[in-house]
Amino acid sequence: MTNDGTPLRTFLRTADGVRIDSVYDPGTAARGSSRAASRDPVFVIAHGFTGDADRPHVRRAARAFARHGAVVTFSFRGHGASGGRSTVGDREVLDLAAAVSWARELGHARVATVGFSMGGSVVLRHAALHRDAGVDAVVSVSAPARWFYRGTAPMRRLHWLVTRPSGRLVGRYGLRTRIHHRQWDPVPLSPVEAVPRIAPTPLLIVHGDSDGYFPLDHPRTLAAAAGEHGELWVEPGMGHAENAAPEGLLHRIGDWVVTRAG
After folding, report:
1. Is 154 helix (H, G, I), strand (E, B) or coil?
2. First to last CA, the chain
3. Is the dihedral of CA 161, 56, 207, 146 positive or negative?
4. 1 in a domain, yes or no?
5. What b-and-e string marks burial along 91-111, b requiring 16 or more CB atoms within 10 Å of the CB?
6. Helix, coil or strand: residue 206
7. Per-residue pLDDT in tens (0 to 9) along the chain, 262 residues
8. Which parts of the chain fold into alpha helices (H)?
9. Can you tell me where the transmembrane regions are (predicted)?
10. Using an 8 Å Cβ cutoff, are 159 and 184 in contact?
11. Residue 210 lies in a domain
C-alpha cells in the first residue's frame, strides 16, 4: 500500500512464470487512516471468463467490497494486461494463489476469496488444492458444479469460443481474451470434487434463479457436496455472475465475509 492509502498496482509472478496484473485497494474505512491493515479482511476477487481487473462490473464489485475491507483485484492469465493465455479455469488457480500471497504480504491476517462464474470455480479449487496457504472464507458466485456442461445456449457458444480456432480469434479480438489452444490434459479437479476438501473453511455458494448459463442443479450439487460447512443463497431474479449481482447482494456478501472470516 502507498503511504497515503491510495490503491497500488503491480504485476505478480505466478508459480509457472506468468505475469498477472493486480490492484490493491486498502478499502474506504482504512483510506487516510493509520490503522493496521491486519484489522480488516481483504477480499480477493476472481472475475469471470472474458473479464479483467478494469472491467466496469469488476470495479463495481470491488467498490462494494471496499466498504467492508481491503480489496485485491487481478486479471487472470490471457485477460486484460496479464500475460499468458487462458486455460478456462485450470491453471488460473496459480493466478489466484499469487494474488492471495500478495494479500498476505500486504499485512492482512484474514483473506477471503470471492469468485464469479469461472472465477467461482477457481476459488473452490484453490481452497481445496492450496490448503497450506489457505484462506479464511470462500464465496463462489454463479459457478458450475461440473466440467463440459453444454445444457444451455450460452454454454454451447462458450464451448465453440474455446475449442474452435475461429472462436479463439473472436475471443482475442472481440473479447480481449487470449485462449490457449491446448485441451486439458489431465482434466483438472472439478468444482464438486473440490468442495468437500475445503472444510472447515467457511463456504458460501451464491446463484441466481434466472442464471442463463448454469441451472440450479449446479449450486444445489455444490451445496450438497459441502454439507454442513457450506451455505447456499439462491437469489430470486438474479442472472449470471458480476454483471447480474445487485448492489445489495454484494454488501450482504461483504457482511458475511466479515462475520465468517474470523
Report:
1. helix
2. 23
3. positive
4. no
5. bbbbbbbbbbbbbeebebebb
6. strand
7. 444 567 899 999 999 999 999 999 999 865 555 444 556 799 999 999 999 999 999 999 999 999 999 999 999 999 999 999 999 999 999 999 999 999 999 999 899 999 999 999 999 999 999 987 789 999 999 999 999 999 999 999 999 999 999 999 999 999 999 999 999 999 999 999 999 999 999 999 999 999 999 999 999 999 999 999 899 999 999 999 999 999 999 999 999 999 998 6
8. 56-65, 92-105, 118-129, 153-163, 165-174, 191-194, 217-226, 241-244, 247-260
9. none
10. no
11. yes
Cis peptide leading into residue 200 (ω within 30°): yes
Domain for residue 50, yes or no? yes
Q: Report yes or no: 106 and 24 within 8 Å, Cβ to Cβ.
A: yes
Q: What is the extent of the structural domain holding 174?
A: 8-261
Q: What is the CATH number of the domain that holds 66?
A: 3.40.50.1820
- H or E element in which residue 235 lies: strand 230-235
Per the omega criterion (within 30 degrees of 0), is the bond before 165 cis? no
The residue type at 164? R
Residue 40 lies in a domain: yes
The whole-angstrom separation of Cα 27 and Cα 5 is: 9
Residue that has been written with the C-alpha cell 474470523 in this structure? 262
pTM of the model: 0.94
- Can you tell me the distance from the alpha carbon of 73 to that of 61, in angstroms, rounded to the nearest whole number? 10
